Amino acid sequence: MITLQEFDIVVVGGGVAGLTAGLFSARRGRSTLLLESVMPGGHVGSIVKIEDFPGFPEGVAGYDLGPMIQEQAANAGAEFQMAELQSIAAKDGGWRISTSDGEIQAKAVIVATGSSNRLLGVPGEERLVGKGVSHCASCDGPMLKGRKVIVMGAGDSGLQEALTLAEYAGEVLVMDQSAEPTAQETYQQRVREHPKIKIQGNSVIEEILGESVVTGVRVRANGSTFEIAADAVFVYIGLQPNTAFLQGIADLDDAGRVRTDICMRASAAGLFAAGDARADSASQAVSAAGDGATAAIAADRYLKGLNK
Predict the structure, then answer these.
(1) What is the pTM of this model?
(2) Which CATH number is 80's domain given?
(3) In this structure, is the dihedral angle defined by the CA atoms of residues 49, 54, 56 and 58, taken in order, positive or negative?
(4) Are 170 and 147 in contact (CB under 8 A)?
(5) What's the pLDDT tens digit per position in 255-282?
(6) Is 96 helix (H, G, I), strand (E, B) or coil?
């Protein structure tokens, strides 16, 4: 018979928000488990340089930042378990969490499951994933030396990844359905000044072309449809929250993110949310860290019977 694991606080998700929540929860003396199905770090793990995280004037690689926070949390006493989340449900005055490795009982749960890259939903995209369709410039950029690549999306992530790709590719074309980029001005200025990068607004990819590998895209722009040859397509058109398991459990907004108050408390008692999983998130590493700390402090106060 498998013994049911019991913890004061279980943090679901191992990105910056989850790792920070685990750190602050453990530092408050709470028995803490951080549950993650992949290596901790979340989205930042694929970012070559995060330039706006406080304390790193020269920037910090996302794949370094995640392990740094994980080490802090582990040193504070947090435990880690790699398992797939299956469901959570209110039970025995707390929360019962079902995973691929068994069940866990928690007095409070912090949801920091982050988000996944939103897909274009066009022909050729799913079939060519890993064959020229990608969401990770640092992973696939080195294989595209001298090639032409397309980045769809001109927000922060799109321009960040375009700058990373420009270190390898011969030409980077950034496309966006809006007329102008929506990224931070710092990224826009660097992109405008980069000789390898061009931006094309008012553009929508209707199909990704190629049989066994990407050969180009079919684009609709300014009332016309035409094809552009390219060796890869990197998609950064927004994020989809990983919160489907909370349907019917917590109040979600129209996008599927968890509605919380200023203390990261969800609509269900003992349930908290942090980072991209919560409504109105700024979707920045620094704000995710703040959310995680706030959620852990609020969870600790909840367990002490202090709800204000």
Answers:
(1) 0.86
(2) 3.50.50.60
(3) positive
(4) yes
(5) 999 999 999 999 999 999 999 999 999 8
(6) strand
Q: Is residue 54 part of a domain?
A: yes
CB-based contact 70:18 (threshold 8 Å)? no
Distance CA 195, CA 186 (A): 16
In a domain, 211, yes or no: yes
What's the CA gap between 5 and 17, in Å, rounded?
Answer: 23
- 57 token code pair: 């004037």
- CA distance linking residue 107 with residue 87, whole number of Å: 16
Range of the domain at 61: 5-116+239-303
Phi/psi at 198 (5° precision): -125, 150
What pLDDT, in 10s, does the model give residues 29-75?
A: 999 999 998 766 667 777 778 888 999 999 898 889 999 999 999 99
Which of 266, 263, 286 has its CA nearest to residue 54?
286
Residue 96: half-sphere exposure toward Cβ, Cα within 13 Å: 9
